[in-house]
């Protein structure tokens, strides 16, 4: 091995030192380049980053502070048809609310005066999917919106309303719109609210409950001839009693015909048939004999039977009579009062009272002769015509006995 000279050793040391200096310089350059990038950003690419940050902050400051809340929650099932749907706004005011069913029909409702809430003005239908779109604005006028959907319950128990008169019919001036329910109603206000009546010409129509299964509607006075009446039965989803819901959604229309009111005088044994208050015919009659007196009061024809059978068993007069082929019979009360043709009365008509409470008019068995008083009156009468009985020895008919609510004062009717 050759010894290393001093000169060679110094040269090697200088070479090592140079290499170290070069490496250090490279490292310093690298560090300077990284650090220099941050320094340069004040006037270069860093300025764009600050602008983006400021832009994001500005964008965030433009978002509405209003918060819309919808109940029930999105996707909810078996939602109650009343009381469950509520929409509210915090840190802002509601400006728009739309609730629609699958067919696009909107649910009526209103935003509160302070803009904090919205509730429907009616119940919802059962087994129905609804969508909700609600918009609110904050104090700066910035909008916030929420969308949701839910499905109402499917009832296990339901009720129906059987009504009169029929859709499309023409009826007399005394005809109320009467609904009989298949289940006793314990939530009467909810059911009454779901029946909407409009008329042309316009007249105030009010409803009155008879018991818990019948609801009648009428104006204060008899209908004006020619009035068009439209009834919307919006019972689908109405909870009529706990756990029992309506399932009808139906519109009924009927027309009021000419004004015919007939007045029976039990003492004079006559009936005056009047059109618009003018007598068009006077007919001799017989009414209830002593002990079987005919009711006084205003009675509405609710049924017409060209020929029927009358048996005392059906009205509590068992064994007293059973008459076949009774002609031209028209019902005045639920309890069995009729105005009808009578072929067995002999000389009673116009002279004395001989019936068991009905109003009898001269006729032949089966009503074949239409020129006789009973035939004429039957042919010139319609469902809803009024027959008023006066001067009988009995009391006034119960307003609930037949369609005879006219015997109740308007104040009591509305109460």
Automatic annotation (TrEMBL):
GO terms for cellular component: extracellular region. The active site is at residues 340, 358. Residues 39-68 are annotated as: Disordered. This is L,D-TPase catalytic domain-containing protein. PROSITE patterns: LD_TPASE, PROKAR_LIPOPROTEIN. GO terms for molecular function: acyltransferase activity; peptidoglycan L,D-transpeptidase activity. Pathway: Glycan biosynthesis; Cell wall biogenesis; peptidoglycan biosynthesis. Residues 260-390 form the L,D-TPase catalytic domain. InterPro entries: Big_10 (IPR041280), LD-transpeptidase (IPR050979), LD_TPept_cat_dom (IPR005490), Transpep_catalytic_dom (IPR038063). CDD domains: LDT_IgD_like_2, YkuD_like. SUPFAM superfamilies: L,D-transpeptidase catalytic domain-like (SSF141523). Keywords: Acyltransferase, Cell membrane, Cell shape, Cell wall biogenesis/degradation, Lipoprotein, Membrane, Palmitate, Peptidoglycan synthesis, Signal, Transferase. Pfam families: Big_10, YkuD. GO terms for biological process: cell wall organization; peptidoglycan-protein cross-linking; regulation of cell shape.
